[in-house]
Structure prediction request, 145 residues.
Amino acid sequence: MYKTIVMAYDGSSFSGAALAHASALADLTKAELHILSIASTSGSMAVAESLGGGDIWGQEEQELRERVEVTLKELSDQGLRVVGRVRCGDPADQIIAYAHEVKANLVVLGHVHKGALGRWLHGSVGVKLLDHLPCSLLVAAGNGD
Prediction:
């Protein structure tokens, strides 16, 4: 059923829940699992950098690369076929583009419950994905710790 699964990953607890689902499905279906991390180039990151935060984007990208490498090793040690990518940009746009590129059959992402202010500040990646993905979407709930 699934040949290519893309999992949006940032190392947080809610993406950890998504990783558990994605890796179990990849193992069950013998699918190739793509771990995709995105260094967000949002307006809040630009503000932080302009206030003297240094190279915020570069630092975030490096941290994501390190997390992805550790995750890839753990998953490949479990016998899974895995690919890792780190990209910069709008998370929804990057997930959609990557899913098209690799002809994904499924995208898995984590979800943390946000209040109204959190939704307003960060928007809803899920809604944009539902409208533009070329495949199914599985959302794994987590507590966001």
